[in-house]
Structure formats: C-alpha cells, structure tokens
UniProtKB/TrEMBL annotation:
It comes from the Bacteria. One of its GO terms (molecular function) is kinase activity. This is Sugar kinase. It comes from Streptomyces xanthochromogenes. Keywords: Kinase, Transferase. Belongs to the ROK (NagC/XylR) family.
Amino acid sequence: MSRSAAPLSLLDPPAAPAARRAADGARRRTSASAVLRTVLEHGPVARSTIARLTGLSPASVTDHCARLDALGLIRETAAPRRAKGAGRPHVPVDLDADRFVVGGVHVAVPYTSVALLDLRGRVVAERRLGHDEGTEPDRVLANAARGLGALLSEAEGRLPLGVGVAAGGWVDRDSGTVVEHALLGWRDVAVRDAISERTGLPVQVDGHARALVNAERLFGRARGSRSMLHLFVGNVVDAAFATHDEVHHGPRSQAGAIAHLPLAGGTEPCECGQTGCLQAELSERTLCRRARERRIIRSANPVHVVRAAAEGDPAAARLLVERARMVGRAARLLLDVLNPETVVVTEVGVMSRQDCLTALREAVGRRDALVVPSSFPDSVLAVAGGSVALDVLYRDPLSVPAAPKRNSAEPARSSEESN
C-alpha cells in the first residue's frame, strides 16, 4: 500500500490521541459545569429538567449528577416529585450547601476581610483584621491565613475546598501575584504562594472588580446578563467587563485599570500631576476628607457618612448624592465605550440610599442599560474573595477531590431547611 493510500488513522501524528483525550476532557468539564450551574440556579430540580435546560442528553445528565454526588457537591432531596401519569417519581437534586466552604480573603486599604462562603455564595462567617501594624505584605497575608484558620476551626463539619483572594490594583490572575497596589505599597507580591503555603489549600487570586462580576454572574441579580460592566468605587477605583460569561483580563490581567481616566467636572488633584482622575476624585479617602472639612464626621470611615445621612444630616446626604452623580458620569464614560447590557456599581452611597441610586442613574442617562447596585451590600468584600474560588469551582467541578461519604443515618435536608 502506498503512503498516499494509507488509512487516515495511520497518518495521524502521535499527539492526536492525546489531543482527542484533552478535547473529551474539556467537553466533560463544560457539561459538568452546565449541570452544576443549573442546579445552582434552579435546584431542587429534576434531572429531566436539567437535560431540557442544558440541551444535554438524559443519560449524560444522569452520569454527571452521579459524579457530582460522589464529589459531595449535590445530593438528592428528601421528597421525590411524582411525574404526571405512570412511571417513577422524579427525585430532584440540589446543591449540598452544608458540606463544603471556600475561604475568602479581600485585602483592602484599612483592613483585610476573611470569610467562609458556602456553595451558594452565602457568607457563613466573616472577620475583619485591621492593618494596625502596617500593610507589609508578609504580615498582612500571615494574619489573613491565621484568620481563615480560626474561622475553619469554628466551622464544625465544614470541609474547605480552597481559598480565593481578591484585591484592588493590578492583580495578575495567572501568576497569583499583586503586581502593583499603590495605596498598600505592594509590588510583585506572590499572594497565591504565601496563602497556599500557610493554609495548605489551593488558592486563586484575582482583582476585586473581576471577582464581583463573577459573583453577580453566579449569585447576583445580574445573572444571565449577556454583557456586564462592574464599577468598583472604594479607596481603589477600578472596573471589570464581561461578555458571554467570560470576564476580560487582557495581557497579565491588566484590564480594568481606570484610576487615572479624567472625569469631567473633577477638581481633585492627583499624585500623577493631573486633576480630576477617577480615583483621586471618587475614592473613599476623598469622600471622608470632604466630610471632615464639612464637619459631618471626624473619622476616616465612609460608613459614618452614610450613618449621618440616615440620621438626618442634610450635608451628609448632599455629599453622598454629589459623589453618586460623579460616579454616574464615570459609569457613563465606560458605558459609551463598552456598551454593556448591565452596569453594576459597588459604591457605599449607591448601595445604601435610593437618592444616591437615582442620582447615579440620572447621570448615566442611558435607558438602554440596566444600572443596579451590587447584589451584596452587606458583605461585598467577603463575597469578592470567596467568589474567586467559587468561579473556578463552577467552571471545573470535576477537579474537586472526592468527598467522604455521609453517614447513612444522617437525614437529608431540603433546600428550605438548609436556608
């Protein structure tokens, strides 16, 4: 037989079987992710409904549910749902939200938040660790690891799957490094290695704006949006953008750095030499300084400005509305470039007060985009850290180590009982 007449299988390069296995593995991960996401959104849900919603075959759904059950991520609920007519009753499946947690770390300028989140993104436990001894990276990360250890020691019966770490500034997801955080004075800090070494757990690291896009995508009111812009306005001001369930990172995860974009009407001098940069104009440091100048508060805590407004201080209310209006101008600037379907804003006034949300929307001025505050006003930083790890879990649930079997005498709890 001539070479030209040889069967194609004989001409395949040696790498072809490995490539096929890799492709099959990718398909299995994608399908398992679709099944787990459907259970998250619709559970308790019958396998037949999962097949209809995902487009997977019933046999494939049954196989994936068996795998996810063996991993301890889902479980059959106590009460089966009987199908119309004859046949076996449908036994719904739901997340097993009582077994696993992920650790969340968010490094902010004044403090670090450590938390435990369940598989639905709900905060199980949380602590704030002040930076009273400074923001030197080793000290901050060691304190965070100890704080997580303390929470886990108190979480009886909960198994940790991993840790997510979120921070502002330039964060390189792939290397797990905070490349630059000017307000903390951090540069090239190997966060993933430091936390993993101290906890013995797998660690994922990302910027907090991107982490909160994933939180909204999985657990928030913006779930199902085809494109989303998230604008984070704290001491750090940055943004993230996602389309079709994928957050844009760019080379070395540098996307979303908007601190020095000029804001029309801004008057605050920036350390870069310009006036009216987004971060200089909108940061919580600027808010608190202006509040002190107007004798609204004496502290450097933006929550105290919100509290003063809630207690009837008109100067505090005006200051928050002014800031919300400027945030709306910043959102409009980004919206005009990216044109997302949904805009989510994390900002203390917008999350707390209707007058601030109204001022924000008026400044945005676009009626073709849904503009909403963060879905997590009471736990936004804790959710940011944990969502870094939960995003990885929901994208590749088959990577979870098999869970120990439950005691057969342990009763299954319905979703209502576990909420």
